[in-house]
Design a protein that fits this description.
alpha/beta; 8-stranded parallel sheet; 14 helices; 8 strands; 12% strand; globular; binds S-adenosylmethionine; binds iron/sulfur cluster; binds FE2/S2 (inorganic) cluster
């Protein structure tokens, strides 16, 4: 592909926020434009979502999972992980602490742990909503009725990565899970009025650049409010132990292109990026992202929530993470948002 064509595609993305599959594939494949692409995405980020960064406090409340995803340390068949489950009152107490650290949102994340029925979760959500915080759930696949009950209890957002839009790859890597069901979950969440977050893993064995381009087009089709992109970090206790790590620059290119195509979206600089490279979150925040999800889980539970090795902050406290991330944000001339950080539907004047 000539340099002229690549720059034309970039310009088109900046102006129209539209690209087709071939144009996306060309930009994702070009290893010479990373910084130009990131700078373009950074400008679009400034225009649409401004200089503020939204912090979402992450509570990893159970590492018990009924699923068996080939890449994930929480998978059912991993005998090496020490399982834990926080009680509802421990979860509410962590949310209270998160509010004291200044977080306006908590993200309740877990494996697919069916101990947490929709009724139990609804009670937890109601308690947290009394503290005037936004609640994001990331607990996997549930029925329409369960999602409805959780929404009525006050849940605001839901994160459910599609992981990959290649049905074949999805079903090979998430045994016994159905790609169509995952898609329906996302459209059900949309119908129920959640802010919907999705995303994909970069570097899955067998994944192609065309498939990643397709992932971006899917995020557009869903009109996703949040999009989290993370590199695969192989876990020694999973069938993907010997897989290669996801590539940092390709993951960065994905983030930048997503900002260009979905300018209003909330895009996190994900924790897994930082496992690949020191200060990766800061680089990603300057390549199109505007959200960080610092961990507010306490003590040894952080280590036990072992999706992949080399997870950052396992020995740090929630207070250390809050002050660390605040400092990093300040160092790049940005600031922590004072609001709950719902998606804005109009470009901001800067
Ligand atoms: N169980 C829920 C689900 O799967 O949607 C939420 C928790 S799950 C641990 C959150 C995300 O972790 C998944 O969507 C997946 O993309 C990511 N993840 C799992 N294993 C990973 C690995 N080895 N490297 C990077 N990310 C991983
Ligand atoms: Fe369970 Fe989610 Fe891990 Fe899959 S990615 S094994 S559903 S925790
Ligand atoms: Fe946890 Fe930096 S974000 S110590």
């Amino acid at each position: 592909m000539s340099d002229k064509m690549i720059l034309q595609y970039l310009k088109k993305a900046q102006m129209t926020h539209e690209l087709n599959q071939n144009e996306l594939t060309a930009l994702l494949s070009d290893t010479t434009i990373d910084d130009t692409l990131a700078a373009a995405a950074d400008q679009v980020r400034l225009k649409y979502v401004g200089n503020s960064i939204h912090l979402r406090g992450l509570i990893e409340f159970s590492n018990i999972c009924r699923q068996n995803c080939m890449y994930c340390g929480l998978r059912r068949d991993n005998p090496h992980i020490e399982r834990y489950r926080l009680t509802p009152s421990e979860i509410v107490k962590l949310a209270e602490k998160a509010r004291r650290y200044g977080y306006k949102t908590v993200v309740l994340q877990s494996g697919e742990d069916m101990y947490f029925s929709a009724n139990i979760l609804a009670e937890i959500i109601k308690q947290i909503k009394k503290m005037d915080m936004a609640v994001t759930l990331s607990i996997g696949e549930r029925s329409y009725e369960e999602y409805e009950l959780l929404k009525k209890a006050g849940a605001d957002r839901y994160l459910l990565r599609i992981e990959t839009t290649s049905k074949k790859l999805y079903e090979a890597l998430d045994p016994a899970m159905s790609f169509n069901n995952r898609k329906s979950c996302l459209f059900n969440l949309r119908k129920l009025g959640y802010e919907v977050g999705t995303g994909c893993l970069v570097g899955l064995p067998g994944q192609t650049i065309e498939s990643l381009a397709q992932d971006i087009l899917f995020f557009k089709q869903l009109d996703a409010d949040m999009i989290g992109i993370g590199p695969l970090i192989p876990n020694q206790d999973t069938p993907l132990a010997k897989a290669a790590k996801g590539d940092f620059t390709l993951t960065r290119r994905m983030v930048s292109l997503i900002r260009l195509l979905l300018p209003e979206a909330n895009i996190p600089a994900t924790t897994a990026m930082e496992t690949l490279k020191t200060d990766a979150r800061i680089i990603i925040l300057q390549s199109g992202a505007n959200v960080v999800m610092p961990n507010v889980t306490e003590g040894d539970y952080r280590r036990k929530y072992a999706l992949y090795p080399g997870k950052i902050c396992v020995a740090d406290t929630p207070a250390q993470c809050r002050s660390c991330i605040g400092g990093k944000i300040k160092s790049i001339g940005r600031y922590v948002a004072a609001d709950k950080g719902f998606r804005q539907h109009q470009p901001r004047l800067t």
